[in-house]
Structure formats: C-alpha cells, structure tokens
Design goal:
411 residues; five-stranded antiparallel beta sheet; 3 domains; Aminoglycoside 3'-phosphotransferase, Chain: A, domain 2; 23% strand; globular
Length: 411
C-alpha cells in the first residue's frame, strides 16, 4: 500500500480548496499526492512524502508546480527527488499524463525535462568532461552544482574543473544558437560572458567572470559599489542593433498580467490591484526613444569587482525597449530587497542614489509609476516560492507599489 504524506505545513494561508483556479486546487491540494504517487509507481518507485516547492501560475493558461518528494525504490533505497507537474499549455510532449475530470496533468522527474533535453547531459560529470574536451576547454574531472532551474524554460549548472569555473546554461534547443550569437556580439562591447560553444540539445557554455553580485555586496554592507551613473553608462553600450529586434514587454503591461496572477490566489487584493494598475496606466509616458535594453536588470545580474561592474549577466532578455524601464526595474528590486534584508540601510542608501540619478534623466511621475509596476511583478514572488506566510508578504509588496505611486492612501 502506498503511503502518501502531504506537505508538512500548508504552503499558503488558506486551504487549497479555497483557491479559485481549479489547477491550483488540484496541484496544491491533497489530490496532488495521488497524482504524484501514480507517476512514481509508473517509474517503479513508491512515494513516501511530498512537498510543493515552487509554483508558476498563468491564469487561464497553465500551472506548473515543482515538488520535493521522498521515494522508496525496489532495492529499498530512499531518494529525495524533484518532480514537476504541469497543466494547460505548459505540458511538454513525452511526459506521463494523468487525467482528473476535465484537467490533464503532465508529470516528469528531474533531470529528464522533455523541453530541456540537454539537462541530463549537463548534470552528468563524464558527459560534461567530454563536452569541455570537445570544445578545447580541457577535459578531466569536473564538479557540478545546480544554480537555477525553471521547469521547461532553462537551467544553469556550474562546472568547476581544469579551466576553473564555467557555467552551462541549458535552454530550449531552438533558442541556443541565437543565444550563442547574442553573447558573442555583446561580449565585443560589454563585460558580458563570451560564449565558448553550444550543443544541439541546448547547452550553452559560458565562462565564469570575476566579481560578486551587487546583491551579495549590498547584503554584506560592502562600501565599494559602482556609481549609478556607471551602470547607466554600461547600458548605453548595449549594441544598437538590439533596438531593431523584438520589443520587450513594458512594465506597465506586465503589471496588468501580474495583478491578475495575484488576484487569482488572493482575491481580497483585487480592488487594490485594479486601483494601482489604473493609476500606473495614467502616469506612464509613452513617447520615449526605443533603444537597446537589458530587459530584466536587477542587482543579481551585475557582478562587481573593486567597485566597478565586472560583468552583465543573463542577456537572454536583451532587446528593444526604453531605458527608463531598465532603471525602474533595478530601483524596484532594490526597494523590495531592502524589505527582506538584515542590513536594509545600505540598500536603501544605494537605492536612493540610483533613484536620484534616474529622476535626473526622466520624469519623476513616469519613473515611479514604472517602479510601482515592477514591484507588482515582484509581489508574485512570495506565492511562487511558497513562503509560509505568503499572503502577508504579498500584501506588503502590493502596498509598497502603492507607496511608489505616492498619492494613493494606504489601507
């Protein structure tokens, strides 16, 4: 008989049955255990316990939940596994499917992600050593460490060997050659990791660059930080041809989507979010020059060494946009980081300097409306990572967005 123990504590402030979207009720409620047990048994194991770890929810489109599960195998080994369940448009081909009424759930087990066929290779030390040898980067023993994983989207694996630190970015195979070209072209003008090679199954090999992230330095109270003007000047060096490429979704448009996501899991915030989104739409100025932008600039995307920016990371998002959006996004991330840091004073001072620099370039109301829009996007974070008190954390971030708009009365 299969023993299924659900999560040890509720990942939300209410029971899963109270969620409006059925997909969330299914994948976060007790029925999820039956689905995971069936998938585990099909693989030859027996599910002992499970715990949801992250959720990606797109209302009316798809829901993906990543679980940590304890599984017992026929040889009596007990292993800790990462299992992913998805509904809607995000179910990849080639996964086990289970139907629950009118909802189909696709399930797969790490590291076999059908959308990322290179992932299993990137996690196998002999295969990575052979790949590095083929690329002329030196073979031999390597140590691997997973740095990030977004099911069906991308993963990052750190590989340490004879060449020092390298990073294997695993993406969908259809996108890897274009990403290789982006890194190559940008590395000629910027401190961007230059691609060392790629594989047909979606692995991009990047060098490790000197420095620590701006986020790490801010949290540690580091005094030697790059001037905001230096970050702005770095962005101005982005290749001009990016401005002719695909246009990045604006922060205001993204805020509308993120507000829908938040309201679907916390309906009590619907009215407040509607008010904020409407005010953002009124204040945002549209007639900015279209230039090359990073597209998702925040403090973890900047490496700093000796007080200067030594690397600009994750340029997958680079494209056409408005410079005000990059600066607003960075301001928003810093304001949220200060609320969860043990040393907020340094972060707030640096954020204030960045804000002053940005307001010297752009209209104050326009800038702050975009910062508020980015904060609404960040308000999805507590639920996405299933913080134990995520409703309260979400509400605080929504109110932080209201503070950036200024005139809205706090409730």
């Amino acid at each position: 008989m299969t023993t299924v123990a659900p999560f040890t504590h509720p990942p939300h402030g209410r029971v899963a049955s109270e969620f409006r979207p059925r997909q969330l009720r299914l994948l976060l409620g007790e029925d999820a255990g039956a689905i995971l047990a069936a998938a585990t048994e099909a693989a030859g194991g027996r599910l002992q316990s499970w715990q949801p770890r992250t959720v990606t929810h797109q209302p009316e489109r798809s829901t993906i939940v990543q679980y940590r599960a304890e599984v017992v195998w026929p040889d009596r080994r007990c292993t800790s596994e990462t299992i992913v369940a998805a509904t809607g448009a995000r179910i990849p081909d080639g996964v086990a499917r289970f139907a629950d009424g009118d909802t189909t759930v696709g399930v797969w087990r790490w590291p076999i992600d059908p959308a990322l066929p290179g992932l299993a290779t990137a996690l196998d030390r002999p295969s990575v050593a052979a790949l590095l040898d083929d690329l002329g980067l030196g073979g031999g023993a390597v140590q691997l460490r997973v740095r990030a994983y977004r099911p069906g989207r991308r993963a990052v694996v750190e590989a340490t060997g004879r060449r020092g630190r390298l990073f294997l970015k695993v993406v969908r195979p259809a996108t890897v050659s274009a990403l290789h070209r982006t890194h190559r072209s940008m590395a000629a003008a910027l401190p961007v990791p230059d691609s060392l090679g790629w594989t047909d199954d979606g692995i991009l090999v990047l060098p490790g660059l000197a420095g620590r992230t701006l986020r790490e330095l801010l949290r540690s109270g580091e005094a030697r930080l790059p001037a905001p003007a230096a970050i702005d000047a770095l962005l101005d060096r982005l290749p001009a041809e990016l401005a002719a490429g695909s246009r990045r979704r604006s922060l205001a448009v993204a805020a509308e989507h993120h507000a829908t996501v938040i309201a679907s899991v916390q309906p009590s915030l619907q009215g407040r979010l509607d008010e904020l989104v409407a005010t953002i739409g009124e204040r945002v100025v549209q007639d900015h020059e279209l230039v090359a932008v990073h597209g998702d600039l925040y403090e973890a995307q900047l490496l700093v060494d000796g007080g200067r920016v030594s690397a600009l990371l994750d340029v997958d998002t680079a494209g056409a946009g408005q410079r005000i959006e990059d600066l607003a996004n960075l301001c928003a991330h810093l304001s949220v980081l200060a609320t969860v840091s043990e040393r907020p004073a340094v972060i707030r001072r640096y954020g204030a300097d960045l804000l002053a620099h940005a307001e010297a370039r752009f209209d104050r109301g326009d800038l702050r409306a975009r910062i508020a829009a980015a904060v609404i996007g960040l308000a999805t974070g507590p639920f996405r990572v299933l913080e134990p008190l995520w409703p309260q954390a979400t509400a605080r971030r929504v109110e932080l967005a209201a503070q950036w708009l200024g005139r809205l009365e706090r409730r």
